Model the fold of this input.
Amino acid sequence: MPGPRRDLHELNRRSWNEATRAHNSHKGDQAAFFRAGGSTLFPEELDLLGPLEGKRLVHLQCNAGQDTLSLARLGADVTGVDISDEAIAFAGRLAAETGIRARFVHADIYDWFEEAAARGERYDLVFASYGAVCWLSDLAAWGRGIAGVLAPGGAFVLVEFHPVASMYDDQLRLTWPYRDQEPFIGPGVSDYVGASGEALVPWGFEPGVTGFQNPHQGAEFAHGTSDVIMALIDAGLVLEVFREYEYANGCRFFERAEMREGRRFYLPADVPAIPQMYAVRARKPA
Done:
């Protein structure tokens, strides 16, 4: 088995470092937003996670920590893990400025899985969301890693953008395969926050960086929904929920997409709907 592609992970670390700075340039005073009781979570993930008070939760690929802090605000004992040192440094500063307690760890999640399991760390909930799966170079190792850090009876929750939506460019032209065993190496992480505006920054979007061009390439992986689900099942987890949604929370993928209630982007009425998100909950047997 080839195993995780850490050489490509390093490529992505550099790309995410650059993009994180651009993203945060649009988000204004995030600390004030959180101190006022704000949350960046959407209903879909909250529904699948359930009550969080007192739960041990690890947020994989947590990026700059906004969702992680929102989870901690709801009573979870949260650890956020991300490969981007820029993102983790920002998350730590944001936690300090808001007074919300959360731990942040800079690590490749494949390395973190091994180290956390060796330390005997176990979590009631493992969580990942929105643009996480496409950076995973080894789904089987990912599934085993999740199972290894879940406590018996604990659950993994994923809310993710749908691979069908990823097959189309922003003009809705069919461009990419549904799945591909080979990574796609191309332009780095975009300024999707700038493109989505107030949908991702409802507390006050700022123009920030304009014309962002990432100087670092990125390596993405095309995984189908069945690939994700089977990686979890093969690791010994039991599938409880699989849902698909004909909208995308917060992110405008298509030029003609229309933002409606709840900061959800739908395709216009004259375009056949496609799934833009899916959600999974899988549980480790007690």
User: Anything to note?
Assistant: DSSP finds nine helices and twelve strands in the chain. The longest helix spans residues 6-24.
